[in-house]
Target: Oxidoreductase YteT
Amino acid sequence: MPTEKKQKDISLKNNKILRVAVIGCGSRGTRYARLASNLPEQYALVAAADPVSERVEQIRALSSDSGFKGYPDAAALLEDRPSADVVMVCTQDDDHFEHAMGAMEAGYDLLLEKPVSNSMEEVVAIEQKAVELRRRVVVCHVLRYSAFYLKVKQLIDDGVLGDLVSVHAAEGVGAWHFSHSFVRGHWAVMEETSPMILAKCCHDMDLLHWLIGRECRSVSSVGALNHFKADHAPAGAPERCHQGCPVADDCMYNAKHYLEESGKGWLAMVYDRARTASDGEILQWLETSPWGRCAYRCNNTAVDHQVLAMGFDGGISCSFTMTAFDTGRGIEIYGTKGRLKGGEFVHRSGGVDIIVENHQGETLEKIDFEDHGGHLGGDEGLVDSLYARMVCWSVDDVLAEFRQVVHGHRMAFAAEEARQTGTVVFS
Ligand SMILES: NC(=O)c1ccc[n+]([C@@H]2O[C@H](COP(=O)([O-])OP(=O)(O)OC[C@H]3O[C@@H](n4cnc5c(N)ncnc54)[C@H](O)[C@@H]3O)[C@@H](O)[C@H]2O)c1
Model:
């Protein structure tokens, strides 16, 4: 049995190019399409669908396929069935079920954005359909493909830490990121989209399950929305930042920050003309868009902090904290031979990404990664690895990985149920 690398080399040598269609050409769809277009020996972009025609045209511009086909929506693409091997489903959370099921039924394998769906029943139905039709489904849990988490996984699997006993992980969403996505943005109202622990932290649930290598059996959780609500609004703050807010100059959530270079990066995810519009046009757009609202006067319900306690098979305990009020992820792993600490805080304070010590206090490893890229390099890693999963892996191996992803989603749904009911949820 040739190794994955050898199989990939053989496929590349035989000019096996994966033909890719994109459904949903927003921020994520365009990102993956751009990364795929940088790997022409692996991928050809052959079709794209989005109701916003400019977004389809952006993907067309990335494609070197003269027969590239654009469609006004997923239904039109799936009805026409362009000749493609893989469909990238990059629509919003709510649409994943319909588009993933439709694409599998039309004969395509999938790169599917997370969350798989915002209902556990639909997640299970998608898994069942993939098994029934023997479709390959790869979920965009990009962090699994980052150099950082691949190294952590390797250190665990090589036994450097001994037997795992306990893990703590944290995700600091970042106050501005939180306000952009979970107060003003797409995932602000949990009842209309996904609960926070699924929308943002299904990545973390997946990572914990993957790193620990065991199934999670029990979850308890507390969390709430403390800060981004009307009773914290500065005195006299109006509904929208441009309406003469008395604290406009001092407020870090002032929508005017979208005019700054760093703000434009965020704006570009929700406003196609972020990079070309004048400041005046952007300000005018903000006057009516959700992103121009006072961050204390939105209809948001997403929790701004949540803590989980989880029990895994083998008696391994795990805690996880999501907070709006820190930036970046971190992980601490305690094993019988050693302990590992890594992530954003370790990097900022210790100058390296990962430190491993034994219990005599000796440093076993200090690892630093020079280039972090999008999602710690995970976006690039995912798109590169997709090829092997579609061309070299067996369908059964891809489905086994998808089963792990489904378990990570189950953990997230269990955590939300535990938070809402104040009970321990067993799975
Ligand atoms: N993997 C990650 O790290 C990561 C990061 C951010 C977002 N996401 C997920 O990616 C998905 C997309 O997020 P985004 O930020 O790119 O959203 P987005 O709103 O920028 O893009 C969604 C696109 O789908 C299009 N669309 C809507 N209905 C359609 C239809 N019927 N047919 C075809 N296209 C249609 C919209 O016009 C839009 O362009 C979400 O599920 C989100 O949760 C994943």
In short: Residues 14 and 403 are 31 Å apart (CA to CA). DSSP finds 15 helices and 15 strands in the chain.
